[in-house]
Amino acid sequence: MIELNTERLRLIPLSAENLKLLIDNPKKMELRLSLSKSDRFLSLELKQAMEIRLSKLLADEGNYIWHTNWLIVSKDKNRNVGGIMLKGLPNENGEVVIGYYTLPEYQGNGYMTETINNMKNWLLNQSDVMYVIADTAKDNIPSHRVLEKSGAEMYKETDELYFWRFVRNKFLKKNN
């Protein structure tokens, strides 16, 4: 099983079984992964996002790392502090879309900046990936800051969202 590591964090891609447990029985998932117990449950919005990830994962289990939630685990606490989702295989333009969340009590510790830096570096080293894309609600200022600190550029917007991207080769920007 693949796992990414930073100085303070472990990024663990959840199998279908562990993703289902995160949705239905997070305590059992923590036990299975030998994590410290918490009393955290997913918000309704996150639960719905995880259910979508699970349906995509079950449709393509061989590529589960591209469809699942990667649990963000603090090494010193051995506790789930958030997650980062890959929303599918790279498309024909080499784009991979990510989504992420930090559990409220762990916000403001730099965990997400560390996670995104690690994940984008790993993704941009995959042969089919040219861009890592993230979208944020226009009023989600903490998320904007994380993406800016991680080196993303805002390249598009809609009425509700900003779209950000990391580019594998900076010279590609000139051609877009």
From TrEMBL:
**Pfam families per the UniProt record, alphabetical:** Acetyltransf_3
Q: Which residues form the N-acetyltransferase domain?
A: 29-173
PROSITE patterns attached to this UniProt entry: GNAT
Q: Which Gene3D superfamilies match?
A: 3.40.630.30
Which protein, by its recorded name, is this?
Answer: GNAT family N-acetyltransferase
What organism does the UniProt record list as the source? Bacillus yunxiaonensis
Q: What is the lineage of its organism?
A: Bacteria, Bacillati, Bacillota, Bacilli, Bacillales
